[in-house]
Amino acid sequence: MIRNWLKYKLLYFALSALMIVISIYGLTSWGLPLGIDFKGGAEGEYRLKNQISNELLIAKLEEGGFEVSAVQSIGDSSILIRFSNFVEGRKLDVINIIKEVTGEEVEETRFENVGPSIGRELVKKTYYAIAIAAGLILLWVAYQFKSFVFGVSAILAMFHDSFILIGFFSLFGHFYDAEVDFLFVTALLTTLSFSVHDTIVVYDRIREIRKKHGGEIQKIANQALTETMRRSINNSLTIIFMLLALIFLGGITIRWFAAALLIGTVLGTYSSPFVAVPLLVTWEELSRIIKK
C-alpha cells in the first residue's frame, strides 16, 4: 500500500524552518563553543599509581576554577589533562586537586602551553573543500539523474543537516559546556556524506519508477518513499543504537563526538525523505505551473 507521505510536506518544511531559526538564534546569541583545537590552551601529563574516575577529576578541577577541555587516560598509570584556558602559576593547584581525588602522590611529567591545532588558514581551506565537494556532488547527481533539480535538492538537504548540527552545538555549548573540536569536525563531515548517501537511495528509486511507469511526480515520490522508508529507518537505527551506547557508556572524552554523530544521523534520516524529496517535488510542480 502506497502511503501519501507528501501530504504533510508543508509541515516538514515548517519543522525544518523552526530548527533553522533555533540554530540561527543560538549562533547569533552565543556563537560556537570553540575548544582547545581552535583556541589553544595548555595540557599537562601526570603519573599516578592507580586509575581514577576522569569524570570525578573533571568535576573537581572545574570546582577549582579550571576550564577543562578533556581528561584522557594514558596506559594504566598516567593521565593527560587539556585546559581550555589556564592561568599561569596554578600548576601546583592542579596537582593538589589530583592528590585530593586520588589520595596519593602525583608526579607532573609534562606541562606546556599549546597553540590552536586548527589555524585560520586550515579553516579557510576546509570551507573551500566543502564548497568544492558540494559543487562536485551537485554536478554528479545532476548528471546521473539527468536533472539539475535533483542535484540542487540533494545539496540543499545536505546543508540543511550540517547547519542545524552546527546551530544545535551552539546551544549545547551554552547550556551543557560542549566544545567544538577535531572530533566535531569529523562528525560534521560524516553527516554531510550520510545525508547525501540516503538521499541518493530515494532519488534512485524515483528514477526507476518514473522510467517504468511514469506519472505525476508526487505519486512517484510517495511510492518511492513507501518502498525505501523501512530500509532507511532500519539502517539508521543500527547506527543510532551504537551511538547511544557510546554516549551513555563511552566516557566523557567521546560523549560529544557521539552526540554530534547521533544528531547528524537523525537529521540525515529525516532530511532525505522529508526535505530532499519534498524540495524536488515542489520544484518540479512549480516548474510545471510556470510553463503553463
UniProtKB/TrEMBL annotation:
Lineage of producing organism: Bacteria, Candidatus Woeseibacteriota
Recorded hits in Gene3D superfamilies, A to Z, give:
Multidrug efflux transporter AcrB transmembrane domain (1.20.1640.10)
User: Major location, coarse class?
Assistant: membrane
Q: Which InterPro entries match?
A: SecD/SecF_arch_bac, SecD/SecF_bac, SecD_SecF_C, SecF_bac
What gene is it encoded by? Answer: secF
Protein export membrane protein SecD/SecF C-terminal domain location is 97-285
Sorted keywords for this record are: Cell membrane, Membrane, Protein transport, Translocation, Transmembrane, Transmembrane helix, Transport
NCBIfam families per UniProt:
transloc_SecF
Task: Indicate what this protein is called per its UniProt record.
Answer: Protein-export membrane protein SecF
